[in-house]
Fold each of these.
Amino acid sequence: MARQFFVGGNFKMNGTIKSIQDIIHHLNEAKLDPKTEVVIAPPALYLLLARENLRQGIEVAAQNVFDKPNGAFTGEISAEQLKDSGIGWTLAGHSERRVIMGEQDNFIASKTKAALDGGLGVILCVGETLEQRENNKTIDVVTTQLKAVADQTKDWSKIVIAYEPVWAIGTGKVASTEQAQEVHAEIRKWLSSAVSQDASEKTRIIYGGSVSEKNCRDLAQQADIDGFLVGGASLKPAFVDIINSKA
């Protein structure tokens, strides 16, 4: 069964009401590949703005979720609250939260499970630093991050794995087509042995890390690259070109 191409746009802590309305208007008017699933992740303050104004067929993701359903957790948002607001997806494990916020593998796994239990899809981010790559630790690092999730959940049908080499995020550096495909193939191999053959065949593994309209088409042709998680370029008109990279 062919895996549906998936393109996510992570706005990070960028945007205003006006600029996000402009992005939404551009996406609503654009001719997008109907075979590609599209999800955008604006800052939490603008989730409802995005959901209420985006056309049908484009989904919205939170950039973060907490691992408890409710309670005295100042500043956090639960899966139930997101679901109640019509938000169908969340990111988990982005390297900026791992590094800057100190989120550990087990906490990310717990948040992933809470999101899945709450009915959300999860874009689960994994990736290695430059030092880890240079020490040939890439696969060890990535599979350790994934194993933490596998220890807590067996159903991967609503997980999209985003491989984002930390050294390529926002740096302008991008993993070569061969480097990206190699890691994606290893992730798929790991899914087969650690989760199930079904999960290996059906789970979408997308690439993130300075994806642009210039490099997306070559990456999209690789056997195990099922789409992209786009950062800065998702704020620009070129995001449409990335969405249509498989067309």
Amino acid sequence: MRTSIVLAIAASLATTYGQVFQGFNYGSVFTNNASVTQQDFENEFNTAKQLQTTSGFTSARLFTMIQ
């Protein structure tokens, strides 16, 4: 009985975790090292929202690397 409860909870958490973290990753600079502006981000977000094959993707993450 306990095993089935634990498995049910684990399956539920795995499903929730997968849904929460669907999204796109964006960098803070272009390949030429120029900074991305607010307008650039807005354009990328709006483009991503219009993609037909990305239903359920509702978040964006910004990655930057300081060296």
